[in-house]
Every structure is written in C-alpha cells, then in structure tokens.
Amino acid sequence: MRHAISFRLNGEARTLDVEPWEVLLDVLRERLGIKSPKVGCEMGECGACTVLLDGRTVRSCLVLAVEADGHEIVTVEGLGAEGLTALQSAFLKHHSFQCGFCAPGVVLSAAELLARNPHPSEWETRMALTGNLCRCTGYLPILDGIREAAEGGDQ
Q1: pLDDT tens per residue across span 128-146
Q2: How many secondary structure helices (H) and strands (E) does the chain include?
Q3: ∠ at Cα 77 (35, 83), nearest 5°?
Q4: pLDDT in tens, 57-91
Q5: Domains observed in the chain
Q6: What are residue 6's DSSP bridge partners?
Q7: Mapped to the 3 state alphabet, what secondary structure does 99-145 carry?
C-alpha cells in the first residue's frame, strides 16, 4: 500500500507516493534523480548516503521515505545551489577529495558542524566526521578545508 508524502527537497516542494519499505536513498536517487547521496554500505556505516534532514545529518539508507513526510531535506545539490559555499571553496583549495565518493557526506557533515559551531576545535571536527569513510585522502586535507572555512567565519 503506497503512501503519499510531501517534503521540501533543496528548497523545492515535492510530493510523491512511496512504498512503506522504500528508503530515502532509493527515492532520492532512483525516483528524483538526486545522485549526490551515494549507495555505499547500505547499513549506515560509511556515510556516503548522508543528507541533511531538518538541518541534521542522517544516513539516507537508514531512513524510510515515509519518515521524510513534512520535513526539509538538503543534499549537496541544494547546499551549493547559489554557487560554492566558503566550505566548498576551502575543500577545493585544499584538494580535500580525490575520488569524490565520500565528498557529499563529508561536505554535509562539515556544514552541519559549522552551522552548530562556527569555530570548532580539531577534536570536535574529527567527531563530526565520524562515520564518513574516506579511502583516498587520509582526512588531513578534509580537516584543513574545514579549519579554513571556520577561520573565515561562514560556511
């Protein structure tokens, strides 16, 4: 039995019918064409499918689509809709990503951190990235990018 849900996706109102078992990741990628959340482990361990749900990071592979009803979802496409943010520019400057598979989850996790705490300590930054696996960079360029964005004051 399908359920009608309505939510805001990257600032745009969306309404669609979903099955009760459909996860948000599949709906975003397969039904709405939003490709930044990646299919990784499908167990909430890798962070590749991270999105913002009402400003908080969630693993979209673990959220049922029906749970998004009435909420605001932001993906990387929505974060930089009006051009690169200071955070995204800092990541580019520091070559924070190589293959890019982890990038959307890391960017959204860092954006949430800086929204809550504009000047986090290195420990707070590392904790905010917990659960975002990156096999390419060793995390140091990612930390450098976040530090620069924090020093600039805005994300």
Answers
A1: 999 999 999 889 999 999 9
A2: 6, 5
A3: 145
A4: 999 999 999 999 999 999 999 997 888 999 999 99
A5: 3-79 (3.10.20.30), 86-152 (1.10.150.120)
A6: 15
A7: CCCCHHHHHHHHHHHHHHCCCCCHHHHHHHCCCCCCCCCCCHHHHHH
